[in-house]
Amino acid sequence: MKKQLLSIAAILTLASCTITGDHFSDQNGHLGEPANYKQFQSVLKQSKLQISDPNGKRSNKSSYAIDGDFSGIVNEYFYVDKKTEALVFKMKNDHLRNELRLQENFPVNSPNNFYTLSAEIEVIDPVESMKNTDIKQNEITLIQVHNKGIYDDGTGSIPHPLLRLVWKLDKDGIKGHFWAIIKNNAVICKGDDGKDNKDKPICEYNTAYKLFDLGKAPIGKLTAFDVTVGNNQLAIKVNGQLIVNHNINYWSELLSYFKAGVYNQYSNGMTEVHFYKLDYNEASTITEPVSSNEPSVNNKPVIINKPSNSIEAKIDKNEEEIDEKWDEWDDWD
């Protein structure tokens, strides 16, 4: 037992040394430290930072502030703009990320619990960012609802998020819009794990995914998003208007969680996104009933979190493996 505690202490010490080393600095006080801004303290305490080395290999990622303590976590890619007090996420190059991972893994099918991520976002000149891209996907993921699996230890996870809320350069001639890309079943359709499914009708793109146009991104203005999950429904409001109201009975066995920030799916450019608001809330009711006219599938029981003795490092490793598989497959568009 003592050896295990010493090992965990050593891991945490190493992580602390990394944070205070080359990865994070305040550039002589020119950058606002996010932990010092009251409007972001709540969401930070409930999150950890998953960030890539912008000069590292494709899909690389490290986790920081795994205990929700963001003291000293500031650099040129993650900071608060002192003038506007916006939380700034920046990242360059394809398949690299800079995201907050909300720590709570929640059941999506509880009839009495609704989980909401609210954000006010400005994407800074994304067309300019993508002017030298040489791939076809050309989008920036801003908000995700991902899955942990059936249990908190990662058992039964699939390498697809339920939702990616993206800014996309061009979708069938529609330029510069926000989109909700929703996995429309819980089937793995690509890679080794999906080799038995990929040629089946259930994995055809128009069956496996559903896209919702969330409107054109305004230049120099904010867009407010409220993403709510609960009672087997996924609802998205844009500037207070309900745009998406999607039945997710098929996802009911998968514990899920939110991510917010920047994940690039384009090459040769730098993304900059400003979050003027970022809140996470759980409520037993919502002000408007979330119902759907879409056909439902078989209901499944609420999943009770399975006790796990796994340490955080094991859980992080599981998430890294899921992200790596997702990175390999997310160009299916």
Order of H and E elements: HHEEEEEEHEEEHEEEEEEH
Largest sheet: 8 strands, antiparallel
**Residues in helix, %:** 10-25%
- Give the total of beta strands: 15
Our Rg estimate from Cα atoms comes to 19 Å
What's the overall average pLDDT, rounded?
85
Cα separation of the termini: 49 Å
CATH architecture: Sandwich
Class computed from helices, strands and strand pairing: alpha+beta
What does this structure look like?
With 333 residues, this protein is α+β, with helices and mostly antiparallel strands. It has helices at 2-19, 38-45, 126-129, 205-208, 312-329, and strands at 47-51, 62-64, 78-80, 87-92, 97-102, 114-123, 139-149, 163-171, 174-183, 209-216, 223-230, 233-238, 241-247, 255-265, 270-283. A hairpin with a 2-residue loop joins strand 11 and strand 12. The protein has one domain (80-329): Jelly Rolls (Sandwich), CATH 2.60.120.200. Strands 2-1-5-14-7-8-9-10 form an eight-stranded antiparallel beta sheet. A seven-stranded antiparallel beta sheet has the order 3-4-15-6-11-12-13. The chain has five helices and 15 strands.
Lay out the secondary structure.
Blueprint: H1 2-19, H2 38-45, E1 47-51, E2 62-64, E3 78-80, E4 87-92, E5 97-102, E6 114-123, H3 126-129, E7 139-149, E8 163-171, E9 174-183, H4 205-208, E10 209-216, E11 223-230, E12 233-238, E13 241-247, E14 255-265, E15 270-283, H5 312-329
Antiparallel strand pairs: 1-2, 1-5, 3-4, 4-15, 5-14, 6-11, 6-15, 7-8, 7-14, 8-9, 9-10, 11-12, 12-13
